[in-house]
Structures are given as C-alpha cells and as structure tokens.
Design a protein that fits this description.
With 95 residues, this protein is α+β, with helices and mostly antiparallel strands. It has a two-stranded antiparallel sheet. A hairpin with a 2-residue loop joins β1 and β2. α2 crosses α3. It is globular, with a radius of gyration of 15 Å. 11% of the residues are buried.
Length: 95
C-alpha cells in the first residue's frame, strides 16, 4: 500500500494505492471498501446497479466476471483503477 495526496479539480485528498496483481487482491479491496462504507452486499449491489449474486461473485473472486460491471463497482464505491505501463513500448497518444 502506498499513501499519497491527489490533486484534482474538486480539491486535494488523501489516496491509498494498492498493487493489484490478482483477482483475489481486487476482490478483497472491494470487500474492505464496502464494509468501510457500512454497506451490506445487497445495498452495495443496488448502489452499483448490479445483482447481489454478481457482487457476491466479485467478492469471492469468480474468474468469469464481466469487466464492465467490475469497473462500474470500483467507480461507484469511490475508487479509481489505474494502469501503469512498465516500459516505453506503448505510444499512449496513438489511437
């Protein structure tokens, strides 16, 4: 875990950054965030626009999850997911 300050248009806030190298790591972080927000799985699922079964599968690291729904859950629980490229062999400006 890394701690840093993030500067955005809406202000400055503290952020915790985690290295996510496996689905179980992501699942654990989502579960911890849900609990920190005081939400039950059913409430979190409703908030995120997904089914309770999907939310349970996500927290239990089911390998066939739909990535668009996973990203929606991450966003709506107030988290950001970032991707870092480890070398310079990708032109991020090219489309």
């Amino acid at each position: 875990m890394k701690h840093s300050l993030v500067f955005s248009r809406s202000g400055i806030y503290a952020a915790y950054m985690y290295d996510i190298d496996t689905l179980p790591t992501l699942s654990q972080l989502i579960k911890r965030r849900r609990k920190a927000l005081g939400l039950k799985q059913a409430d979190a699922a409703l908030l995120c626009g997904v089914g309770t079964r999907f939310f349970s599968d996500l927290e239990n690291s089911k390998p066939t999850l739909e990535i668009d729904k996973v990203l929606r859950v991450v966003t709506l629980l107030g988290m950001d997911l970032h991707l870092s490229v480890r070398d310079d062999r990708m032109d991020m400006e090219a489309q």
